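Budget justification, computational time. The allocation requested in the original proposal was used primarily to generate structure tokens for proteins on the priority list. As evidence of use, we reproduce two of the resulting records. The first is shown immediately below.
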Amino acid sequence: MPSRELVIAFDADDTLWHNENIFEDVHERYRAMLSRFHDAEAVEQALYATEIRNLDLYGYGVKGFTLSAIETAIQLTEGKISADEIRQLIDLGRDMLAHPVELLDGVAETLAALAPAHRLLVITKGDLHHQERKLSMSGLAGYFQGVEIVSEKDEATYAAILKRHNIAPANFLMVGNSLKSDIFPVLALGASAVHMPYHLTWKHERSDVVPLENNHFFTLANLRDLPPLVATLPAEP
């Protein structure tokens, strides 16, 4: 490992552990529940529109999703959805919150390899209580010297985090699955980023633009490849 003070931050959902596959399973059940009223595409479009409209109020995470799903179901059925079906939606949300944390391949080994030589952080969006609970359940908390659970991941958010932790952009590397949230804002600040694509991506996090790989931006297929990449990064003054 190089001796430079490189601080490495990780997104959590779909970077350290699986998340979007849980949402996808619930979406499938949701479409089935409302299939007697609308086709699958109409249900998905209406639900997404409700989620985006409610983001400023609810933020990201399961709780906001569940409230938006209930609101959309009432709207699409013109109030005909039953109390029992609403209860089923609440139960789906509760099941999502209680879902076991399933680590992605190579996560524990990678963090164990990097932690002795680098300061590691978690920077993630979502509900504070749920994200804290998942980190605790993951068994990974001991690897991180700081945890930032934020309402949005943009340039201003990252700039504030770097200032708070006294990190120069040249010595900061962000690892995450979302180009929109984990890559573009970090590169704009002059820091470095590693994109770890996940096989499922929420529509709101998708981007048709992909940066060109250079000495500040990299794409990896597996987190196990991160320590060898970090070892090749040039030392910064």
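The second record produced under the same allocation is shown here.
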Amino acid sequence: MKTDKTELFEKTPVTRAVLALVVPTVISQIITVIYNMADTFFIGQLNDANQVAAASLSLPLFLLTTGLANLFGIGGASLISRSLGVGDSERAKRTSAFCVWTSAAVALVYGVMIYVLRGVILPAVGTDEYTYGFCESYLFWTLTVGAVPTVLNAALAHLVRAEGYSGQASFGVALGGGLNIILDPVFIFGFKLQITGAAVATMLSNLIATLYFVALIALKRGKLHITLNPRYYSVSGGIPREVLLVGLPSSIMNLMGIFSNITLNKLLVNYSNAAVAGIGIAKKIDMLAFAIANGLSQGVIPLIGYNYSAKNTQRMRDAVKVTLILSLAVTTVGAVLLFTCANPLVRAFINDADTVRYGSMFQRIICITGPFTAITTVIISIFQSVGQKVKPLILSMLRKGGLDVPFMFLLDHLGGADAIAWATPIADCGAMLVGLLLFIPLWRKLGKE
């Protein structure tokens, strides 16, 4: 079954096709970062470093939902686009049903597990007597109650984007983000719930965004191959293996990022909660540059996967070139802006001298990784688009956890809190170099074909 988006994949000029797919994706990623920053911003207006630190300590556990969404969303999107490239619409339907129902079940189990094991998990991520209660309340609403809609919101966006409906997918993500920004001050200040209000706002916004995607799929039933009908749920034909192995690198990158953040927080909490709050704010701000690079790389996955399966390697190579140029240009400009405006950006979140000092220092260090991250994420997405599993997994593990954690311990020993953040640019540069070494042979092979 041909869709009205087939021409976008096959005939639209490459630059226009790339922009049509990535611009909405980048916008949705930016809005997602803004609403993530909104939690920290509005909590920071309470001028309580302990609540800001609690939000930072909770972030790694909350971000695991992104890993689950990427596991099924990116893995499913890759398989759906490759299936459509060879005209197998039935497999695309079965893939979508598997991704939706399995991701919902896994998210539910995760949310319950966080609640049951909170007495063990929260101290393990670095909470103390001042932050434990804040973290417990925040995670109850965002994960125990909200894990399923949070995962489904992001996973459905990936699946809808796989069929070329990038604008509609991005609107759904933006809807959740916009609602969160509106609801944050209402619950934090209006209902005087403080950090708990931020958590309730996040849960409700993700729930409403998920309902939007359910309605979209129902309305476009004749045009989309994505289905929520459980009768299409299938674990045959290698669907679970393809989805999970292709989506695993993005999920592992997220898991390793969580491990990296927890390690960083555990090291910095030995100095002060202001240091933990500072790195949390800096990382939230830097997520803007990563969101742009991630949006560019994820947005182009359907175009690359479709043309790879259709044996149109020249069009695929052209799409890669355009995406790399765009990613490098935008992230370089972003890095310069974040470096020069570090102090006022951090101060906008909290008016605490120690937190601002740590945050602005950390911001100037970690923002320089933007161009490195742009190259690495595009390479990972290319490997995922063509169905390769091992290489993107290696890059994901190197970028987060594999290189930065050992350097954190080393730099902590050599220079203390002021030096730890340098582990991030060191790791990102190393991952980029390895990524180029792995990518060049594939690029040459595609050129010959």
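A brief technical remark on that second record: The chain has a mean pLDDT of 86.
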